[in-house]
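Possible regression after last week's pipeline update?

I re-ran a chain I had predicted before the update to compare outputs. Posting the input and the new output here so someone can diff against the archived version. Not blocking, just want to make sure nothing changed silently.
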Amino acid sequence: MKMTTAFAALLLLCACAGPQLEKQKKENEELREKAGALLIQVKEKSDAADAANAAKADVDAKLADAESKLAIANSRLESLTKSNKDLADASGASESDLHGRLNAAIADKDDLAKKLADAQKEKVSLERARNVYRSARDNAAAEAAKLAAERDALASASKASAAESAAASEKRSAAAAKLHDDMGSIADVLLKEMQAGKAEAAQGTDSFSVVLSDELLFEEGSSKIRGEGAALLERLGRALKALGPRAIGVQVHSDNAPVKKGLLGGYEDSWALTAARAAAVTRWLHEHAGLDPAYLSAQGFGEFHPVKPNDSAENRAANRRVVIAVASAATP
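New output (post-update):
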């Protein structure tokens, strides 16, 4: 009985709950629809908010730009206001005063412009002059250095030259003294002939010469050395050999008288005669006195180098001569 009653009560409860569940389902469906609509609205509002933020940022940028332009405009306005005030003050002055000020300002401007131009010209001129002076200074310094180097070189060369000159002078003096002594030794062996006026000796710069009359060595028109001449050449040859190796030149001269020919013939002219006599003396000095022929030379000058005019017997005798030139050194 009790179970039946409970089951009846459950059925009654279920019968009552059915309509309620349907109602609840319907309400839930409506709520879901409203929620979807709300989500759509939220999305739209979010997009609108983003757009608004972007628009605000753009407006802020434009506002900042406008404020900056406003500040510039205010500054210009103040400048214009000040200029307007200055113009107003100037307009309050008298016309003559303004004209005077204008002329003064123009004069000052022209004067300043002229001074500026002059200053610029002076600057350019000074820069050019400075460059010229610098170049001249550099050139002068280089030239001074060059001259100093040349001066030092010349001083050194002068000292060296002076030393060389002194040494050369001393050497020349010694050579001249030696040459004089050598000539003296040769003159000693010809003392008799020199006293008789048939021989003489003379000293040059680097040589000395012995001059013999042709009659001491030769017969007239002959190139054969006679006995007295051979004896003279023997004495002379020994003295010359004692001097050591020397360049010795035998030079024979004549006058302008025609050469006399003997019965056996003779020489064509004085040129041929003097050449033969020079060769004869040179050969004798080599063969009998032992002088080295490499240092000997023979020359015949004929009548073409007279020492006196051929206008007297005495002068012609002076022109007929045998010259033995002895150098200060051996020069084969």
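Follow-up from reviewer: compared with the archived run. Confidence is low (pLDDT under 50) at residues 5-17. Marking as no regression found.
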